Amino acid sequence: MNALRVALVISAISFAGHALAKPNIIFILSDDVGIGDLGPYGQQVIQTPNLDQMASEGMRFNQMYSGAPVCSPSRAILMTGLHNGRHVNGNSIRLQADNVTVAEVLKSAGYQTGGFGKWHLGSNGTALPTQQGFDDYYGILGGVAAWDHFAPTMQRLSSTAPGTVVNEPNNGGFTDDLVGAEAANFVRNNTQSGQPFFAQVNFQLAHFDMEVPELEPYTVNQSWPESRKIFASMISRLDRLVGDIVHAVDDPNNDGDTSDSVADNTLIVFASDNGTHIEPQNCCKGNHGPDLGVFSDDPHDPEFFDSNGQYRGWKRDLYDGGIKTPFIARWAGTIAPGSV
């Protein structure tokens, strides 16, 4: 069962307990994060306190499989519910006008829909996110462009002009920091509107290139190769960005008072598009110059961090290590804390 279907099943089953109220839905998709990279699945070295807490407050899935072992087809399956036999094969799938996405279904049900981060399902024509059900979108449309974690240009789209792409200079920002801030603002701006919202947040962490703005404190003094320090920092940064979005649900006006929390009417899901990567090289450092962040030419070493857990294989493999992914769901008052 793919991740999208599980999220919608959880929602459908739970409507009865909420007098048919429509819950807000936030689906956070990480990139190339292995099932063993996170604390809730046994990671002992890399710190993921926010995902640890999300799992303790919600449900951790142990038998979740992505729709494909690589980025674009996995995302197409997530968005449409169609298996690989119903899409053009390859890692550059373009959504078609007759594809029905989860965003379209939720928009027709009265949801405000926002898309954020890496799209990788087409950058023109009918494949644009604002032509596939999203009211607004901010991120990077192209898959390869998103490899650069300091991508020089971000794209912004609005359903008021669904075929128009506005390119915005990044000015040296870390891509996922910008994506996370936009997503958290979308959540905060919609919590009190009275209209349910759907946010699809596609972080690029922890896809190569191997780079972060700075190393996390616990990696600075480790006697590890630079690539290991960078990867651990990428996972912990992802965890912090997830925490920012969860915090926007728990304390929408960010004043320390959670009386305005919408946690009991918000389903939050965290997943990965496929298993951990073992890519041969980096590609994009030259796009932004050598002075931004900490960069390594060496690839990620999944064996060191046990990124694929007990399973065989990685991204691009159809063994469990390539398609068995983390999946955590939290909905206060509906999903039992600490459930599996």
Describe the SSE topology.
Blueprint: H1 3-15, E1 24-30, H2 49-57, E2 59-60, H3 71-80, H4 102-108, E3 112-118, E4 136-140, E5 153-158, E6 166-169, H5 175-190, E7 197-202, E8 210-212, H6 217-220, H7 226-250, E9 266-272, H8 285-288, E10 294-296, H9 302-305, H10 320-323, E11 327-330
Helix pairs in contact: 5-7
Polypeptide structure, described:
With 340 residues, the protein is of the alpha/beta class. Helices cover 28% and strands 16% of the residues. The strands form 2 sheets. A 9-stranded mixed β-sheet has the order 2-11-9-1-7-3-4-5-6, with helices on both faces. Helix 5 (175-190) runs parallel beside helix 7 (226-250). 50% of the residues are buried.
Q: Which features would summarize this protein structure in a list?
A:
340 residues, alpha/beta, 9-stranded mixed beta sheet, two-stranded antiparallel ribbon, 10 helices, 28% helix, 16% strand
Mean pLDDT: 89
N-to-C SSE string, H for helix and E for strand: HEHEHHEEEEHEEHHEHEHHE
Envelope shape = globular
Which structural class do the helices and strands define?
Answer: alpha/beta
